[in-house]
Amino acid sequence: MSLPARRFVRAGVALAVTAFALVAADRPPALSTVIFRPDATPPVLPGDVFNYVTTSTTTLTSIFSKPTVEKITEDETIKASAPFSFNKHANLTKLEYTSPSSPQINEVLYVGFVPGSGATEEVEYGGVTTGNLGTTAEPETLVSTETYAVGGILSVFPEAAGQHWSPAATYTTVSDETGKPETAKSTVTDFADGTYTSDSTVVNSATKPVLTDTLTQNVAANGTVKVTQAVTGFNLETLTVGLPAVQDGKIVIPVKTVGGNELPAKPTTSLIDVPDWYPSHDAAPKPLLSAEITDKGAVTTPAACGKRAGVKAFDLHGEITKLDPFAATYSVTTEDEYDAAGLGPICTISESKLDDYSDSVLDPGKLLGTATTSSVMILASETGPKPLFGVAAGMQPFSLGFGFLDRLPSRTAAFARPLGLNR
To answer: 225, 221, 338, 345: which is closest to 274 by C-alpha?
Structure first.
């Protein structure tokens, strides 16, 4: 299950590192002539180039402003090359992503085809990206590396109706930003169940004394949260989110904050009982992240697929829900990726909705806003060497990676509320 789309660091995880993307790969070695065996892998060869056009519409409703609608059309090119080694895995395929709308970013993904019991799994092992988002006067280099502990399953081959799997997997993202006057570093580990840990540090050399901002977050499986933030000139701030409890006949989520006020004053303490905003209006869902992909078998692509409409293809249907008790968001995403033999994903249609709640003293538990996004990705063209095995019987398409877990609606993009503890 996949869709070529750029990744964004989770909002609310790295205080000032939300612009980070992935990180630089070495120049590719000489390419082999034939990479895949016809009985083990889908037909993709070094030199294959795929061009996609994605059209998306995002509607934002917020209690702070009037509803807004944003429509974006983006071109993206994916080039395949192999063999590569990454994170102790050999013979991987490198997929390089470029887009005219962000030429300063170079992003790659590494996938492997792993034989299993009667099937071949396409597994994502990580990615690297480099980028320069600054100017000549104020250069700003962004570098990030993402590695999977085991690997995330993108697709299973040969595709057949009824197959199902979860793309959820544990991975770690290490990011660095080098600029003037600020530099930032972060390490985030996302676990397959939706929990995560993160550590980030931002240093601003233009201030006197030099400003250092260190943020540590831990989100547990039961939905409890502990976050600490140390900022030069301020008391250490600690925020905890507890388990829902009954108070005066109503279920509330206790949110406690200690410190964060300016020195030399003593640390202050505040406790807010936030009305339970979780979808069940009880405990947080277990797991916090639920993801499932089901192969619905051969179908005819819908009219929304444009030039790829009316084509016989396999429908990989994905559903995901995710609750983030620290960011105070709940999201639901559905996606249908249509895979055609010999071409791979020719069309992907997705719908997502993210609800953003208040867990501060201002309107605690209230829905602050909702972001809904509809997008359609269509294969515009494919060039490169013809697969030696063509589209012979039994050959199935491959996936191009950047699975839909990485495309959850971004709180940063949708809501301009500050990150960090002083929310």
So the answer is: 225
What is the Cα–Cα distance from 316 to 345, expressed in whole angstroms? Answer: 10
Bridge partners for 165 per DSSP: 293
The boundaries of the domain holding residue 184 are 49-414
Residue 37: inside a domain: no
The pTM score is: 0.82
State how many domains the chain has: 1
pLDDT per residue of the chain (423 residues) written in tens, 0 to 9: 332 232 222 222 222 222 222 222 222 222 222 222 223 344 456 788 889 999 999 999 999 889 999 999 999 998 888 889 999 999 898 989 988 877 788 899 998 888 776 778 888 999 998 888 777 777 889 899 999 999 988 888 788 899 899 999 999 999 999 988 889 999 999 999 999 999 999 998 888 888 999 999 999 999 999 999 999 999 999 999 999 999 999 999 999 999 999 999 999 999 999 999 999 988 999 999 999 999 999 999 999 999 999 999 999 999 999 999 999 999 999 999 998 877 788 999 999 999 999 988 778 999 999 999 999 999 999 887 544 323 333 334 456 544 444 433 333 333 333 333 333
Residue 3 lies in a domain: no
Domain-located, residue 369 = yes
What does the DSSP assignment read for 168-191?
---EEEEEEEEESSEEEEEEEEE-
Q: Is 146 inside any structural domain?
A: yes
Output b/e per residue, 332-369; b: 16+ Cβ within 10 A. Answer: bbebbbbbbbbbbbbbbbbebbbbbbbbbeeebbeebb
Q: Which two tokens stand for residue 134?
A: 């600054």
